Amino acid sequence: MVIRQGLLSLALVVIIVASSASTGRAQPGLDPQSLISEWRGKWTSGAVTGGPGPRSGREGPFALTITQVQGNVVHGTVEVAGVTTKIRATLQGNQLRFGNEQIQTELTIDGDHMRGTRQRAGAPQAVLELEKRK
After folding, report:
1. DSSP string computed for 31-51
2. Neighbouring residues of 97: CB distance < 8 A, sequence distance ≥ 6
3. Which of 15, 27, 42, 82 is buried most, with the most CB atoms less than 10 Å from its CB?
4. Residue range 32-132 in CATH 2.40.128.20
5. Dist CA 75 CA 98 (whole Å)
6. Average pLDDT of the chain to the nearest whole number
């Protein structure tokens, strides 16, 4: 009985260590300082497939300028619909999140590209696709 409990405890420790090691590897080699740049692209809401007209959804330009990264805190601005707003985002692995009570934005970083969503209260979710300016 004691050996069996010991083996179960050992198995539990191995599972915990393995799972915590894998969660820390969201994107190996992501240098947070490399995010400092201008990222431009577009937002798309509504239907993303189909022809012209109401079924095709809406889209517009979207710009994210990252000016400073301190640990997991990212500072910058967002420009959308002609309005520029300061942001303070959180970086976890390759996930960047920012927002307020009205708008929530979540982006996944993949090299020189970001893709994610922007949810505004009372509006359809928008898909964001951004590329780093060089």
Report:
1. -GGGG-EEEEEEEEES-SSSS
2. 89, 90, 104, 105, 106, 107
3. 42
4. yes
5. 10
6. 81
- Among residues 63, 67, 69, which one has the least CA distance to residue 128? 63
Token duo for residue 62:
């979207």
Pair of tokens at residue 98? 């920012």
Q: What are φ and ψ of residue 89, in 5° steps?
A: -110, 165
Break the chain down into helix, strand, coil percent, rounded to 5: 20, 50, 30
Amino acid at 120: R
Q: What pLDDT score does 20 carry?
A: 36
Return all residues near 22 (Cβ < 8 A) that are at least 6 apart.
none
What is the token pair recorded at 63?
């710009």
Contact 97, 105 (CB under 8 A): yes
Chain segment 22-41, per-residue pLDDT in tens? 333 344 578 999 999 999 99
